[in-house]
Each structure stands twice: as C-alpha cells, then as structure tokens.
Amino acid sequence: MPKTELQLTKGEVEQVNKDLNKCREKMDRRLMMMVQMDEGLWNALLELETLMQEKKSLANQLEELNLDKERALLRSLREEESSLLEQEHNLKLKCEQLRKALADASANTEEGTSSHNL
Which residues form a coiled coil (predicted)? Predict the structure, then answer.
C-alpha cells in the first residue's frame, strides 16, 4: 500500500526531529567541552596567579635575606674597625710611654755621665 502524503510528511518530521536531537546532543557535548576547557583555563589562571604570588614572596624573602646578610657583614666590619681603632690607640699610648721611658733613661744616663765628669 502506497504511503500517503501525510504519512510521508510525518516520516520527514520524525527524521527532522531525530536530526535535530542529534544536533542538540552534539551541541550539548561541545558546550560541556567548552565549559570544561573554560574551567581548566580558569583553574590554570588561578594556579598561575598563585605561583606568581609565591615567586614574589620568595623574591622578597631573598631580598630580605640578602639585606640581613649585608647588615651582618657591615656590623662585623664596624666591630672589627672599632677593635682596630682601639688597638691603634693602645699602641700609640705604649709608643708614647716608651718614648718617655727612653727620654727619661737618656736623661738619667746624661746626668750620670755629667756627675762622673765633675
């Protein structure tokens, strides 16, 4: 029995609906993939931001450590300078004392020589 035009149209409508459903399913899958990619991209951006903050924090810590190291070295050099200045002062005092002792000894020797000559 030949199909009537109405039956043919119904068949075409069913086929169009099937095709439409397939297209919707494909579109839904693509949307889900895009959402997943967007989430992946968003997560990657968040992770990148976190890593950049950590890098900045580590750079600041390194700079602070370098400054602490330089301060410690400067403090050590100042202490050494102070110690050397104190040693220099003490040596100058000793030198002055030795000059006086030598001058006194020379004076005593001259007095002794002068007394013997009289």
Answer: 6-108
Rounded to the nearest angstrom, the gap between the alpha carbon of residue 55 and the centroid of all alpha carbons in its chain is 7
Is 71 within a domain? Answer: no
Would you list the DSSP string of the chain?
-PPPHHHHHHHHHHHHHHHHHHHHHHHHHHHHHHHHHHHHHHHHHHHHHHHHHHHHHHHHHHHHHHHHHHHHHHHHHHHHHHHHHHHHHHHHHHHHHHHHHHHHHHHHHHHHHHHHH-
Residue 68 falls within a domain, yes or no? no
pLDDT (tens digit, 0 to 9) for every residue of the chain, 118 residues total?
Answer: 677 888 888 889 999 999 999 999 999 999 888 888 888 888 999 999 999 999 999 999 999 999 999 999 999 999 999 999 999 999 999 999 999 999 999 988 877 676 666 5
Separation of alpha carbons 56 and 49, rounded Å: 10
Domain shared by 81 and 115, yes or no: yes
Cα gap 39→33, rounded to integer Å: 10
